[in-house]
Amino acid sequence: MARFDLITIFPDYFEALELSLIGKARTQGLVDIAVHDLRDHAEGVHKSVDDTPYGGGAGMVMSPEPWGKAIDLVSQGSGPHDLIILTPAGKKFTQAMAEEFSHREHLIFACGRYEGIDHRVTEFYSSQPEFRVHEVSIGDYVLNGGEVATLVMLEAIIRLIPGVLGNPLSLAEESHTLTSEGEAIVEYPNFTKPPEWRGLEVPEILLSGNHAAIKAFRTQEAVKRTVNRE
After folding, report:
1. pTM above 0.90?
2. What DSSP letter does each residue of 140-166 carry, written as one string?
3. Dmax (CA) of the chain
């Protein structure tokens, strides 16, 4: 069973994981998701997890010690552990990355805030043989924290785990899935009843029952959509 440990200062963000397919996957024992409050590992009355940056500058930086304690706690036992640090400076998340992570046994998500996590956390765990560290971004923009990005990644990863989707064939023709030629194209447009809506009709070929022609049409439309996105 795949295990996911989420470390954050806002645990309530992850209540959404009780819903929909991920909630069902948890109930069915397909995934094990645990949310951890970083402040449980902070010192002092105020449980502070951040401080001013060395070298000056605006904002605050998350201190390494609470992160070290939290990561050490959730990584007890045999590895390997994949530590995912959410940061706008990270490698962009892709469908291929989601596929890769869906085969891993233990993923730890470090949800940074403010100006990010002290970089020594990345450096330290990158040097540990039982860890694989990934700095990841979900796009070329800045969020207030890593919680939303973690939710996006979990949705993309967990749905690829066998048994999570009711019909595994749903994954076969999705957007960004690699073709047999190794190309990633987006999905063709889809239509349902009624055949006419507000003066717009479903393409006639889709009503023909000619499966070969429908497949060719969908491939053509998928390629067209992919080109128009670039």
Report:
1. no
2. SS--SBHHHHHHHHHHHHHTTSTTSSS
3. 70
